[in-house]
Specification:
single chain; alpha/beta; Alpha/beta knot; Trp Operon Repressor, Chain A; five-stranded parallel sheet; 17 helices; 17 strands; binds S-adenosylmethionine
């Protein structure tokens, strides 16, 4: 496989390309690399390669004429990629797809970047190596060369050492250990010394799933999982329900807004009680408070709960009872907060929810808060929470559909989406 690297700093690569497995692959001719400096194609006597940005602003921009000449000088540019922080993140899938090419040309930017017209004039894709800005595209290019080369047959001593690596199966790899068996009092896991290959394989799979669940749960969305894996993941996730148990929901029926923008009360809805309780149980949260100061409504809710918790419903559908057991009927958010304080030893942070613009808290921020404290997510019925309830809260969560001009989800749907964004399996 051949790489062309377009760079203003060819000397950058002098040593790094020649050590370890990459050096060996170059020596053996498994990969070849040509470094091309656009400065060699600059046509003014100062060999200029940059200029001031149109529109003003700080820094310089790499100019197109020398770069275009450099690219056009290539006999076979193959697949062309510009290293750029805005690009497609470099991952295993992208590395595999590049490894299928004969020739790849990597273009390294410097300064503020390259004149954007490069992307209209040449068929370049963009690749980023992470959500950080580096001084130039040279280290990113090196990452691409290394990630791609090690996928080439014969690059690694043992081809199988790559089959189980992090990301290859969509999971993080299990931990490795080597001699000595005990170091500074820390032992190698016993199973690895057992010589029992089946047990070792099972342990490694479990540790790989554990690491992925803890460190990169987002990978689970695409990972290929067997039913045994899902069972293990479920068991592993039972080990850490603390964050979910810190989360509580309150569904406020008064004071909420009516369609004229006035504060008032709305009736309970059977569906809201059932469905939000089922969501609450599914996501393992600490409790679900149905808030209404109206006595007849409270009695209605109590009768409903009684049917499913103690009456005929309890025998007919115990699963429903398990969900509805999380429901508490209270007058208002204040009573809900007091109940949480009694239970957790600390008043919860109140976070309002709204379909309207203006929410300032992100789902990730709430997830982070839950690590250390209880949070009561306050949902409204009718036309949303009355201002007096909202003012009582420490913040308002962003609307679920921030970009839509039609935002009329049922509160049940909103509760489900909000819980999934905060506590979903893929974190
Ligand atoms: C200082 S950076 C330019 C940053 C640019 N002004 C911005 O804010 O996006 C100079 C060059 O480094 C390379 N670069 C920097 N960070 C990168 C990253 N995370 N992934 C890939 N390339 C990167 C690109 O080639 C970029 O043109």
């Amino acid at each position: 496989m051949h790489f062309n690297i377009i760079t203003l700093f060819p000397e950058f690569f002098a040593s790094v390309l020649h050590c370890g497995l990459l050096g060996k692959a170059l020596e053996q001719g498994m990969i070849t690399i040509r470094l091309i400096n656009p400065r060699d194609f600059s046509q003014d006597r100062h060999r200029t390669v940059d200029d001031r940005p149109y529109g003003g602003g700080p820094g310089m921009v790499m100019t197109l004429p020398p770069l275009a000449l450099a690219l056009r000088s290539l006999e076979e540019p193959g697949r062309m990629a510009l290293l750029c922080p805005k690009g497609r993140p470099l991952d295993h899938e992208l590395a595999c797809s590049l490894a299928g090419e004969q020739v790849v040309t990597l273009i390294c930017g410097r300064y503020e970047g390259i004149d954007h017209r490069l992307e209209s004039l040449f068929p370049v894709e963009t690749i980023s190596v992470g959500g950080v800005v580096l001084n130039g595209g040279e280290t990113p290019a090196l990452q691409v060369v290394e990630a791609v080369s090690r996928l080439l047959p014969g690059f690694m001593g043992h081809q199988e050492s790559f089959a189980e690596e992090t990301f290859v199966q969509g999971l993080l790899e299990y931990p490795h250990y080597t001699r000595p068996e005990v170091f500074e009092g820390v032992r190698v896991p016993e199973v690895l010394l057992s010589g029992d290959h089946a047990r070792i394989a099972a342990w490694r799979r479990k540790e790989s799933l554990r690491a992925t669940l803890e460190l990169r749960p987002d990978l689970l969305r695409e990972a290929v999982l067997k039913s045994e894996d899902t069972r293990l993941l479920r068991a592993l996730s039972q080990e850490r329900p603390r964050v979910a148990r810190n989360c509580f929901l309150a569904l406020v029926h008064a004071p909420v807004l009516n369609k004229f923008g006035q504060s008032g009360a709305v009736s309970l809805t059977n569906l809201d009680i059932h469905d939000i309780a089922r969501c609450s149980r599914t996501y393992g949260i600490g409790g679900y408070f149905v808030c209404t100061p109206l006595q007849d409504q409270q009695q209605l809710a109590a009768r409903l709960l009684d049917h499913w918790l103690r009456g005929p419903g309890a025998g007919a559908n115990p699963d429903r009872g398990e969900a509805l057991r999380l429901v508490r009927i209270v007058d208002d958010v204040e009573q809900a907060s007091e109940a949480i304080a009694r239970h957790c030893g600390q008043r919860p942070l109140l976070v309002a929810t709204s379909a309207r613009e203006g929410g300032d808290m992100t789902f990730a921020q709430v997830r982070e808060l839950l690590e250390d404290q209880s949070v009561l997510l306050v949902l409204g019925t009718g036309y949303g929470l009355a201002p007096e309830v909202q003012e009582h809260c420490s913040g308002t969560l962003r609307p679920v559909r921030m970009l839509s001009d039609y935002n009329h989800l049922s509160v049940r749907a909103a509760a489900a989406i909000i819980l999934d964004r905060i506590l979903g399996d893929e974190g």
